[in-house]
Amino acid sequence: MSDPAFPASSAHAPRFHARFQSFEETADGSAGPGRLAALRAELARRGIGGYVVPRADAHQNEYVAPGEERLAWLTGFTGSAGLLIVLPEVAALFVDGRYTLQAAAQVDTGAFTVVPLAETSPERWLEANLPVGLSLGFDPWRTTLDGRDRFARAVANAKGVLVSVAEDPVARLWTDRPEPPRAPLRLLDAALAGEETPSKLARVREALGKDRLDGALISDPHATAWLFNVRGGDVAHTPLPLAWSLVPAEGRPQLFLSPAKLSHEVRAVLSDVADVRHEDDLEAALTDFAAGRTVRLDQATAPVHLAEVVERAGGKVAKGADPVSALKARKNAAEIAGMRAAHLRDGVALTRFLHWFDGAAASGTLTEIDAVEALETFRRETGQLTDVSFPTISGAGPNGAIVHYRVTRATNRTLQPGELFLLDSGAQYPDGTTDVTRTLAVGTPTADMRAHFTLVLKGHIALSRAIFPKGTTGAQLDTLARQFLWAAGLDFEHGTGHGVGAGLSVHEGPARISKLGHVALEEGMILSNEPGYYRPGAYGIRIENLILVEPRAIAGAEKSFFGFETLTLAPIDRRLIDTDLLTAEEIAWMDAYHARVAREVGPALDGDEQAWLAAATAPLKS
Asked: What confidence category does residue 15 fall into, taking pLDDT thresholds of 50, 70 and 90?
């Protein structure tokens, strides 16, 4: 469906605009030193020597409500992952490889020391830097059970004292903190869910029974949304309702959330399958349930505070994986069909953008923001876009080397001839979630650019073609995507792939393809395939498609094997491929993929777009 206000033939970026993302700075790094001094004064007033400030809410969501952005408020760092340890003489901000450059640019490095996680962990740093006898405080609502245990060991090794701080000192200082969100819940269409809530509850109870558990506190809102077939809007880019649920091995579950989020219709439907209660009732209900019972709390998302509630009530905490997580990761037939439909729709929008981009980039006036606004507009023209699945990474030249770069009006850069442009984007549709990265040549690429791009492509193809036995983990597959870079003395400092939800979070556990991916891949899981290479100050390269784990029939096989179906449908820039570095099998895969893109995407395009696509997907040796 076309929006007449934004015609497909638009050749100039001002015709476009972004509705679901902004380009303003969302935090002020210059305020960091003053706020850090105020926090140290507040800690001293309470008799606490140091404090841990995670980038987290009570559910450990990737995207958090504005009132939960403590780390950004305090430091100016706006990345989606990070942790600050404040001691009397130093404040260390820990970030992973995606954010090393971004953090150093956003914070006042005179007040905050940026520490890459590749160099050391917070725990090892504490063992080396925590003064003997110093008390280190942590927030029991925003610290997980695993996090507390790691800190406890490190603090004990440093001969310090770990203290649970009930009243958040950052919140006390943040006087204009935004109110909690109250977005309305909506019911997910049964045809998209593919399974009714009673059936899902039965499977959760079966899992609880196998583990001899009396119940589970579901702390991850993604799990609650999936279990009760609802969606919300409490955080950006992911259709989540902030909610908790308590599922007993026998009896009715309880759902805890703000009543302001519920219409009469939604409340009535939910009341058929659960006791719907106010979010403020959670602690009392958990206290009543826990006495004499064993309760599963998710080690990655459950806050320490709720574990303390269970233990004070005389219950036993069974720390482990949320029983919903594994069920949700294995998509059913309806979810897979929805994801395929969403990716075809998204592929059409992205291909229309790429056709437009080739003409617009040649003008020499196109900016990173122009590209973001144009791509979002093409997606809105589908008539189905409900949000972007994350803020678009639109990095021209050296900005592309910042792995999770977010363009602002202050950093916005004009694309220059001879540069690479890295575009990592995704969309939320009612039937599915997408995530795709394309690296594009602006003008004529250098030999180094083409060589590095082709090494990344070889790894992408190797993972796409992988066939592996049941029980294989992401860590075992990760090497496939890195092998060609490693042979050239190169690497990338992020995982090769993450799980993706069906109409939920663009980053979903428990499986991933990385050095830390120790969960076996199973049929129906959807993951990303996104190797990359980044030359600081010059360019970044990443190629990303989403892939579906599916059975592979092998003649004579003695066990079950899996392979991947590629869901993403969009051309990969042929101008950046050095065919002399590809094998015949790799060229065959590339040509087959492009032929499929042309076959499936082409019929939805107009004449000029079809002609462009035919050239963009022509066989590599043509």
From this structure: confident
Pairing of strands 50-54, 135-138: parallel
Task: Enumerate residues 6+ apart whose C-beta is below 8 A from 150.
Answer: 122, 123
**Alpha carbon distance 433, 546 (integer Å):** 10
Lateral strand order in the sheet of 275-278: 275-278, 254-257, 244-248, 215-218, 294-298, 316-320
Q: How far apart, in whole angstroms, are the C-alpha atoms of residue 539 and residue 419? A: 7
Handedness of CA 97, 429, 563, 604 (dihedral sign): negative
CA–chain centroid gap for 231, Å, is 17
Distance from C-alpha of 622 to C-alpha of 620, rounded to nearest angstrom? 6
pLDDT per position as a tens digit, 125-177: 999 999 999 999 999 999 999 999 999 999 999 999 999 999 999 999 999 99
Helices 282-290 and 304-312, axial angle in degrees (round to 10): 50
User: CB neighbours of 380 closer than 8 A, spacing ≥ 6?
Assistant: 3, 6, 19
Confidence of residue 28 (pLDDT cuts 50, 70, 90): confident
Q: How far apart are CA 434 and CA 321, in angstroms?
A: 26
From CA 143, how far away is CA 145, in angstroms rounded? 7
pLDDT in tens, 460-513: 999 999 999 999 999 999 999 999 999 999 999 999 999 999 999 999 999 999
Residue showing tokens 């969009």: 570
- Please, what are the domains in the chain? 29-173 (3.40.350.10), 186-328 (3.40.350.10), 333-608 (3.90.230.10)
Q: Is the pLDDT of residue 446 over 50?
A: yes
The number of beta carbons lying within 10 Å of the beta carbon of residue 234 is 26
